[in-house]
Amino acid sequence: MFDEKKEWKQIWDKAPQVGAALAMWKLPYQRQQFLLQDLSGGVQVEVSELEQLGPGFLISPFIGLPYFLSASHLSQSLVNDNPSEPIPTIKPVEVFEDKLLFQDQVASSVEQIKQGQFQKVVLSRVDVKDLAANFDLVDAFDRLCQTYPSAFVSAIYLPALQDVWLCATPETLVSQNSAGIFKTISLAGTQSALDADGNFLSPSEARWSQKEIEEQAYVSRYIIDCFKKIRLREYIENGPKTVLAGNLMHLKTEYLVDTRKYSYPGLITQMLSLLHPTSAVCGTPKEAALEWILQTERHDRVLYSGYLGPINQHDETHLFVNLRTVQMKGEQAYYYAGCGITEDSDPEKEWQETGMKCQTLQRVINASF
After folding, report:
1. How remote is the C-alpha of 191 from its chain's centroid?
2. Where are the alpha helices (DSSP H) in 205-346?
3. What pLDDT is recorded for position 196?
4. Cα–Cα distances in Å, from 167 out to 26, 209, 225, 263?
5. What is the pLDDT of residues 237-273, one digit of tens each?
6. Can you give the pLDDT at residue 188?
């Protein structure tokens, strides 16, 4: 444990008392960790204002305006070279009534698709667990960073919401580096990365069903349609290919744009406004799918399937979809997970898929107790 982390723990403990907003994060494939403390508590902003804001951290709910945290108080850790400890496999206890409800929601969604109401919809559910008395947020964050090096790992606290969120997400929404290269991805389709004996499979061993291929194609077409709306034709498309994300595998396609070579200023804000919420977390067409989600789900997604990440820091912005996320309120943890439903969806398989997604965080957080 770094000496800096003792101070970080104290900052997290004091945040509710002083009304500070906090964001702690690690970028994919990097080991450097950052902690930002905004003593103002953060402010809500319009997406169109992002490029005029200074360096900071952005947190957007599934529906509503994003919160901006100013980077006036930014700390960074030394690199943690502690080896990652083995993570045990756990089997969450299924709540039978919740399972029946979710499967009924999936079946109803399939019927809506067959009737032509929409082509795809993403429904989510919440798995509630008790937090152990000795749970430590900074320790859990460290363990997630070590266990999922390819993920964007973050922990946030907003006074306006009065709770803590922790995530290890594999999905970039939009990013732009200091060279002006813009990137967004299409990520969908899910299967376990482990065989029957608990050993990791290689991406080449993945076998994708027509349903999963179709689900990912919807997201890809949605991104291309957004490009068409702003008359952007000069982009590079890489994929789809199978990628590992913790104990899961997904289908991923990357889209890259050289904003300097082809003179696309403001592409981040343009695409952010068009993309969110994406087909990967909402559905197709967006409006009809969103209406069905609000009508069907019995919980408020709050920050789940919103987006978050550092912006305008060293001429770079990195925003990620808030997936593989847990909301901590008091002594309970609320794990959120969703699944893309198409005409070929099976309610039992969708229940199992959301269970695997919840385990991404559960196995690490339980191991940290």
Report:
1. 17
2. 210-229, 267-275, 286-296
3. 83
4. 11, 28, 29, 34
5. 999 999 888 778 889 999 999 999 999 989 999 999 9
6. 85
Order of strands, sheet of 120-130, starting from the edge strand that comes earlier in the sequence:
74-76, 34-38, 21-26, 152-158, 163-169, 325-329, 332-341, 120-130, 283-284
Predicted structure pTM score: 0.91
Partners of residue 254 on adjacent β-strands: 185, 238
Are the beta carbons of 12 and 22 closer than 8 angstroms? yes
Structural domains of the chain, with CATH: 3-367 (3.60.120.10)
pLDDT in tens, 314-347: 999 999 999 999 999 988 999 999 999 999 999 9
Residue 185 host element (H or E): strand 181-192
- Antiparallel, parallel or unpaired: β 248-258 and 332-341: unpaired
Q: How far apart are CA 125 and CA 351, in angstroms?
A: 9
Going by C-alpha positions, the residue among 340, 334, 339 that lies closest to residue 302 is 334
Reading phi first (left if > 0) and then psi (alpha if -120 to 50, else beta), residue 104 is in alpha
Tokens of 145: 């960073």
Provide the sign of the torsion angle of the four alpha carbons 89, 247, 329, 14, taken in this order.
positive
Low-confidence ranges of the chain (pLDDT < 70): 1-3, 78-97, 367-369
**C-beta of residue 364 within 8 angstroms of C-beta of residue 143:** yes
Two tokens, residue 253 = 């396609």
pLDDT value of position 308: 98
Residue 64 has what pLDDT? Answer: 95
